[in-house]
RsmB/NOP family class I SAM-dependent RNA methyltransferase
Amino acid sequence: MGQQQAGGTAARRLALELVQGVWQERLTLAEMEAHPHFTEAPPEVRARAGRLARTTLRLAGRADAALKPWLKRNPKPGVRAILRLATVELLADGAAAHGVVNAAVALAREEAASTAPMVNAVLRRVAEEGRAGWEATQPQRLPNWLRGRVGSAYGNARVARMEAAFEQAPPLDITAKAPDAALAEALGGTILPTGSIRLEKAGQVSALPGYEAGDWWVQDAAAALPARVLAARAGERVLDLCAAPGGKTLQLAATGASVTALDVSEARLERLYDNLKRTGLAAEVVAADALEWEPDGPFDAILLDAPCSANGTIRRHPDLPFVKEAADIRPLVDLQAAMADRAVAMLAPGGRLVFCTCSILPEEGEAQLAALLERHPDLKPDPEAVSALPGVEEGWHAGPGALRTTPEMWPERGGLDGFFIAALRKA
Ligand SMILES: C[S@@+](CC[C@H](N)C(=O)[O-])C[C@H]1O[C@@H](n2cnc3c(N)ncnc32)[C@H](O)[C@@H]1O
């Protein structure tokens, strides 16, 4: 067996473990990929396994439709996972049938030897006849509980467009300390109207020009908006209340403001330290619970990027629909409200607050803002903060001082994460 073939089998086995962790144990890919079993694999095997697992999670619904005509009975979960992985390789990646089918048969022998002939026969049919129906199949649907809520908020036609967007692997967006045409060209990207640099194909991020020098960091174009809305200024006292891993802290620090970056997770703060070190930017870092921490004085501006269901980022986290459930939402909404109240208390008179979440659910966005304004009569929307922002499209405005992005926006440019962003000012 050649080296590449051996690597291919190892990557497929690891990809199988990843999707099985998500489907069977409801673990996130981040949790699975933190496991030594994954981290100790060779980098190229990890990269290939991660790519295959993510594509399979995005396209599992399509794979099931392609498999259905050839399956006499419902296979056990482990065998279905092998069939889905192989179907995605065959029909989405266009991989050569021989290698894919042989590898799947080998995995099936390890899983349950008696299923190997069935796996072989089914995948040969899929390879020969599956392509015609593949493009015509509907994109994978969101889980029913989420589809219902998103449908009520945006209408079913828009949900279908979101589902189509969630199937696509996102481009790589970069926030630069000083974005300019020369940097965009060196990276092989384009400058988006909102200021981020977008690369359609990235490869290994750390090998890109300017990474070692800390000239930029990876951040979705929508995720770059909240710090731009806050518009921190040099010398201001600014708090990033849920800061790690620090994309928004870096933006705030790059303005010359005096930034305090707080997060409860020491592990995530390690990544924030790394990011500050690489970019040469400065912030005071605090490991604490935002609900308990007492600052030594009020802040001129606070960014609250609150913990949320994160379903605006399903393009980059295709495991989320399989691991999150309806019961997760209420505790998050309560936590966001409590954090927003703490933020208001820590704000100086006349101070600015930006509240944001990367959720497409109104409970974590529009409704959260309405309830916050109701609880705090001294807090007012700040429409100028969002109207001054370059590149913001008419359709993103969601009431005074608020922006709403959803993943089907900017289809011609490669999409956008779903975010809700509200700009507020304290009396
Ligand atoms: C949406 S993420 C923040 C992303 C970050 N702003 C960025 O741009 O890189 C939410 C963060 O809230 C943190 N968090 C959750 N509960 C917290 C709490 N009680 N106090 C402080 N941070 C908390 C999580 O550890 C997580 O890092």
User: Anything to note?
Assistant: Residues 3-134 form a domain with the N-utilizing Substance Protein B Homolog; Chain A fold (CATH 1.10.940.10).
